[in-house]
Design a protein that fits this description.
504 residues; 15 strands
Length: 504
């Protein structure tokens, strides 16, 4: 039979496959009818009265556009997409032809945002998109493709602000300790296209946005800075932030001009009746697919959360305690004092991590019903953070797997007849984009035996962890057998974790 590891790998792959650009678009979008054709998006119908246009920006948008053009066929009049510098070449090299546009494509590709920072190329693309949007009429339909990394690819400062002035201001804010949320509010306020600007420019045309979310909770106004979503912030918010960091009197003249002439209240919602924003890919959708597959393989399957965030060490502890709890349940100790203690630890940890929307008490209740007769699969997703201390090579998924391996080893070492010993356990963490940090791997697998097996090869897990050197560890350990390597996937909905447990 397949090993737990093979199962974990197949669950990860099926989750990623479901949010790859082509299958994702073909599932969500259909074109119907000849007389008056309609665009069907997740069951909603949009009549194609006159011309259909397409714009897009983000790291996964090239593949999305290629799939969209195939679906739309002759109805597509023209398109413009802004994608990261060098992406066409790297997809070509990776043999991912299906992500590239056909030679006779009606979509113009502009590559920019070197190192994920706005640059003159990205600005050129943003201006082209702006001009296309401004020229639309009431009978036109604009399809907007959005994925993560879209913000740097859509720089369009409100004139007379220059891109370099806007950049300098964001750098000053960042150096004074402004949070990413604050930077985004300032960026949006000074942008023509962000914070709903693109939707306003396209008015009165119908605007339909297809969004691949790489942000926890899928907030429409945050993903790619929300070019087609009503902004939840006003000019007042922007001024408050600038005042907080003592920058009100150090602003470029152009920024003062724009801020003093902008309307002070956020645009009322009725301005957006011509817009429809639809999330067609997200961590939640990927986890749902993994769950379907796991149940097909005979696992009792639970999804913990698609919003796992926080420091990687704390998240590793959460997963280790969950694994302990399942194993205690398998050993018939689910209602004992030890299980109560573990449940208490878990609730405490979850409170500290502040994972949005997680009802852990309810999840623990669902765990209570699981016995050893069926293997258990727990799925989760999101994005952890790593506090860098060392100079090693790694990524948050490999570091998480290594920390879980160490945590399980320690838990087993403390308890003499540990219930962990009577279970087969595999933990996997992987980035859905196929690249974890600056490494060749998407993530890694681990099990409670990892630490001891590594010691036999003269590798100390603690030493590698203290240098944030997880990739080097996994590359050396058992010849790289525990690395999760998928290659670039052309998509991204953050990370996925799978815990598989079977009674032995």
């Amino acid at each position: 039979s397949m090993s737990l590891r093979e199962h974990a790998l197949s669950l990860f792959r099926s989750a990623v496959d479901t949010i790859r650009p082509a299958p994702m678009l073909k599932r969500a979008v259909k074109l119907q009818g000849d007389g008056c054709p309609q665009l069907l998006v997740k069951g909603q119908a949009f009549p194609v009265k006159r011309d259909l246009y397409l714009v897009g920006f983000g790291k996964a948008v090239l593949g999305m556009a290629a799939a969209a053009e195939e679906i739309l066929g002759e109805h597509l009049v023209r398109g413009i997409i802004n994608v990261p510098l060098g992406i066409q070449e790297s997809l070509q090299r990776a043999g991912m032809q299906e992500m590239l546009l056909k030679p006779d494509s009606k979509i113009q590709v502009i590559e920019g945002a070197k190192n994920n920072l706005p640059d003159p190329e990205a600005l050129k693309g943003a201006v082209a998109i702006q001009e296309l949007a401004e020229g639309l009429t009431v009978d036109d339909l604009l399809l907007v493709l959005i994925s993560g990394g879209g913000s740097a690819l859509l720089p369009a400062p409100i004139p007379p602000i220059l891109l370099k002035e806007k950049e300098k201001l964001t750098k000053m804010l960042a150096s004074r300790g402004a949070a990413i949320q604050e930077l985004n509010i300032v960026r949006k306020t000074l942008s023509l296209l962000k914070g709903g600007g693109l939707a306003r420019l396209a008015y009165p045309a119908r605007v339909v946005s297809l969004i691949l979310s790489d942000v926890i909770g899928d907030p429409l106004d945050i993903i790619a800075s929300g070019p087609t979503a009503a902004s939840s912030h006003s000019v007042q918010d922007c001024l408050q932030i600038l005042a907080k960091y003592n920058l009100l009197h150090h602003l470029p003249k152009s920024v003062e001009t724009v801020l003093s002439s902008s309307p002070t209240k956020p645009t009322a919602l009725e301005d957006y009746s011509h817009v429809c924003n639809i999330i067609i890919g997200s961590n939640t959708l990927a986890l749902d697919e993994a769950k379907r597959q796991a149940e097909g393989l005979g696992y009792a399957t639970l999804i913990l959360s698609a919003a796992i965030c926080g420091e990687v060490g704390h998240v590793a502890t959460l997963y280790c305690q969950l694994i302990r709890l399942v194993c205690l349940g398998f050993a018939g100790l689910g209602e004992g004092t030890l299980s109560d203690e573990v449940r208490g630890n878990l609730l405490q940890l979850a409170a500290e991590l502040e994972i949005p929307g997680l009802n852990l008490a309810e999840f623990l209740q669902a765990l209570r019903g699981l016995g050893p007769e069926r293997p258990v699969c727990i799925l989760a997703g999101g994005e952890t953070t790593v506090q860098l201390q060392g100079t090693g090579k790694g990524g948050r998924n490999q570091e998480l797997a290594l920390r879980v391996g160490l945590g399980l080893h320690r838990a087993q070492a403390v308890e003499t007849s540990s219930p962990l010993g009577r279970c087969e356990i595999v933990f996997l963490s992987g980035g859905t984009d196929g690249q974890d940090g600056p490494t060749e791997a998407a993530g890694a697998f681990c099990s409670p035996e990892l630490v001891d097996e590594a010691l036999q090869e003269g590798l100390s897990v603690e030493a590698f962890l203290s240098n944030n050197d997880s990739y080097t560890f996994f590359s050396q350990f058992q010849g790289g057998h525990h690395l999760l390597v998928t290659g670039l996937t052309g998509t991204n909905v953050m990370d996925i974790q799978a815990i598989l447990i079977r009674a032995t």
